[in-house]
Amino acid sequence: TLPDTVRIVEVGPRDGLQNEKSQIPTEQKIKFIQLLAEAGLPVVEATSFVSPRAIPQLSDAATVMTSLRRQPAVEYPVLVPNLKGMERALESGVRAVAVFTAASDSFTRHNINASIAESLANFRPILDLARKEAIPVRGYISTVFGCPYEGEVDPHRAVEVAGALFEMGVAEISLGDTIGVANPMQVAHVLNLMLQADIELDQIGVHFHDTRGTALANVLVALQMGVTTIDASAGGLGGCPYAPGAAGNLATEDLLYMLNGMGIKTGVDLDKVVEATRFIAPYLDHPPLSKYYQAAIAA
Ligand code: HMG
Ligand code: MG
């Protein structure tokens, strides 16, 4: 069976813009976020409060978050790797955050200079502060389906990390196919292991990079198994500078086209997402990868 409604978590302004070579003016980033919120996306992940040396593209996070005109019904979470990031985010008026670790140690080492265990220890003070401020925390697990440094990843690792994150109080977990290697059978296997560990799939989101064209097939399996939160990126922007070979995320337009056709409600206006992508496209040094977007522009 398929769900009646799906919640799309838009990650373009964060996962997309963190990976662009060109320097995008802060004002245009803000406008992009606002256009996505106006399209009806319930969650627009806006930026990251990380080290400006690690991700120079998002070093304007504080300006983005203090200048953003917010819609009351929309959440604008940001990534925070450590307590310093959390404190900077709170100072900028942020009301939802995400912490991020992985299912493979060599990836977390490259990405956030910590082992998985060290990263979880770093998250504790973030979760404590979030609880005090009544701020929801999402937990990302990268490399669930494969690692750029280690290759195959034991799926039980993701289950262990998910258990640890839920235990410390994250509200939901997003399973990342960081380099876009997953196939539908693997997705079913990982989700079944989660179920066996008493993890409810309504607390799980899926985050597929579409590097090898399997993202929509993976989404369909996740939906059939009971997942209702899907991450996607306008235009199919995205990638991680610390994941060599990672290409764009599943495109929001492509996901919406499929869900609309299947009668699954999202509350998102596909034409308005296309408009948001069309707005940001001139600031990129490549055309957006979304297939639906390309077809719409050509028509
Ligand atoms: P480190 O070098 O170990 O950190 O980096 P440190 O604590 O030793 O600090 C080094 C310097 O950074 C210091 O500055 C700190 O103040 C500063 P200095 O004294 O040298 O001038 N610093 C900060 N500045 C601003 N905000 C902060 C902050 N923290 C330290 N929060 C660290 C460790 C985690 C900071 C670094 O590795 C980092 O920022 N990494 C972020 C990497 C990243 O953002 N990757 C992309 C997001 S993850 C992703 O894309 C995957 C996902 O999409 C899911 C999927 O697809 O799988 C989520
Ligand atoms: Mg990603």
UniProtKB/TrEMBL annotation:
Pfam families: HMGL-like. Residues 6-274 form the Pyruvate carboxyltransferase domain. Signal peptide: none annotated. Keywords: Lyase, Metal-binding. GO terms for biological process: ketone body biosynthetic process; L-leucine catabolic process. The keyword Cell cycle does not apply. One of its GO terms (molecular function) is hydroxymethylglutaryl-CoA lyase activity. Gene3D superfamilies: Aldolase class I. The keyword Metal-binding applies. NCBIfam families: PRK05692.1. PANTHER family: HYDROXYMETHYLGLUTARYL-COA LYASE (PTHR42738:SF7). Belongs to the HMG-CoA lyase family. This is Hydroxymethylglutaryl-CoA lyase. It comes from Dictyobacter aurantiacus. The lineage of its organism: Bacteria, Bacillati, Chloroflexota, Ktedonobacteria, Ktedonobacterales.
